[in-house]
Design goal:
The protein contains 13 helices and 16 strands. The N and C termini lie far apart (47 Å). The chain has two domains: 122 residues, Enolase-like, domain 1 (2-Layer Sandwich), CATH 3.30.390.10; 274 residues, TIM Barrel, CATH 3.20.20.120. The protein is α/β, with parallel strands linked by helices. Helix 1 packs across helix 2, helix 1 packs across helix 3 and helix 5 packs across helix 6. Helix content is 40%, strand content 18%.
């Protein structure tokens, strides 16, 4: 067995994420001197069933770094980096909890990603080739969050993300550059209506104008698409992140200055989908309401109702969603579950049940562009990685541009709707 594949050392260090918070970067080095790294992102809006990060009282990640340097390093030294599943299972067993709370999901996912990237490098393969093997690859359609509300903004909008979807283009580069034109027109509109101060960027690169109602945001998107000259060529999406505006005590959703029951929310979303080209709707109900997800999906057959907090990249909850026919789409966030092996299992379960897949970033990101390769390698239907701005977001888009240019891979799935 060649030394280039045998793990010699694993080391964790603290780095900064895109919000200026500390996170963990893990380096994996082989006996043959091959070395790569993986970063752990962090979310602001989190599902309660997500795997647990390890942090100290000041928000630092020293406990996670200690997990890597004093436990994971010893446990994985001597492993072959190509044995991803064996390594991930060893990490799961070493942690021994259901939610990765002993070693920390941030320590574990950064290690898991670093192992995969090191293996690809040792084999002389692109990361997407290593992940996907010999299959024919496809470039995912981007979901670009260009206008923010909820926990990602300082306005009165309850919906967290307003998204443009450039589905009707022949190449990823054409789709992305058209999206940047829409984004620039949106910023111009916001400047005209509210002043330049409101074009300041949110966590994921979107603007946060002082809006109060959902329709105001969708109207702004429509106007931006028209001004950019692409009327009829973009679909819209929304990440409601509705658990954040769900009043559990009263059992109502507080949105647009009103309190709405789940049944009233179904009518609310249906009216929006009738008036605007809403192809995608994420987390429209609170994270425990599989039944109303299913009711809405049954009613909005042309909209991809998508579960994020509903599933938290966990096969156990996805199977419940499949049984209830809750959604046509799933968010896939590796750090929600903690290892790539579990991420692959979740992704494959979704795909086997004809559920659309969305490889997703977090609001607290790093410059690591791994999820771009992950999305191409797995042939994800979509990738969600923010607005076409801020380096931690454009790093992912630029990586896909590289892949498309170098390997001339087909864009999108013609049967995606």
């Amino acid at each position: 067995m060649s030394d280039q594949f045998i793990i010699k050392k694993i080391k964790g260090i603290e780095i900064l994420d895109s919000r200026g918070n500390r996170t963990i970067r893990v380096f994996v080095e082989t006996e043959g001197g091959i070395k790569s790294f993986g970063d752990a992102p962090a979310g602001a809006s989190k599902g309660s069933r997500e795997a647990i990060e390890l942090r100290d009282s000041k928000g630092g990640v020293k406990p996670a770094i200690d997990s890597v340097n004093y436990f994971i390093n010893d446990a994985l030294r001597g492993f072959d980096v190509r044995r991803q599943e064996d390594i991930d299972r060893t990490l799961i067993q070493l942690d021994g909890t259901d939610n990765k709370s002993k070693l920390g999901a941030n320590a574990i996912i950064a290690t898991s990603i670093a192992v995969a990237k090191t293996a690809a490098k040792a084999l002389g393969l692109e990361i997407f080739q290593y992940i996907g093997g010999g299959r024919k690859h496809r470039i995912p359609v981007p979901l670009l969050n260009i206008l923010n509300g909820g926990l990602h903004a300082g306005n009165n909008l309850k919906i967290q993300e307003f998204i443009i979807i450039p589905l009707k283009f022949n190449k990823f580069s054409e789709a992305l550059f058209a999206s940047t034109e829409v984004y620039k027109q949106l910023k111009n509109l916001v400047t005209e209506k509210f002043g330049k101060i409101y074009t300041a960027l949110g966590d994921e690169g979107g603007v946060s104008p002082p809006l109060n109602k959902t329709e105001e945001a969708l109207e702004l998107l429509s106007d931006a698409v028209k001004k950019a000259g692409y009327e009829g060529e973009f679909f819209f999406g929304m990440d409601a992140a509705s658990s954040d505006f769900y009043n559990e005590k009263e059992g109502v959703y507080e949105i647009d200055g009103a309190k709405k029951s789940a049944e009233e929310m179904i009518d609310y979303y249906s009216e929006l989908a009738e008036k605007y080209p809403v192809l995608y709707l994420e987390d429209p109900f609170n994270e425990n309401d599989f039944e109303h997800f299913a009711e809405l999906q049954s009613k909005l057959k042309n909209t991809i109702i998508t579960g994020d907090d509903l599933y938290t990249t966990n096969v156990k909850y996805l199977k419940k969603g499949i049984e209830n026919k809750s959604t046509r789409g799933v968010i896939v966030k590796p750090n929600q579950i903690g290892t790539l092996t579990e991420t692959y299992e979740f992704f494959d379960t979704a795909r086997e049940n004809s559920i659309k897949t969305v490889i997703s970033h977090r609001s607290g990101e790093t410059e690591d562009n791994f999820i771009a390769d992950l999305a191409v390698g797995l042939n994800s239907d979509f990738i969600k990685t923010g607005a076409p701005a801020r380096g931690e977001r454009t790093a992912k888009y630029n990586r896909i541009l590289e892949i498309e240019n170098e390997y001339e891979i087909e864009y999108g799935n013609k049967n995606i709707i």
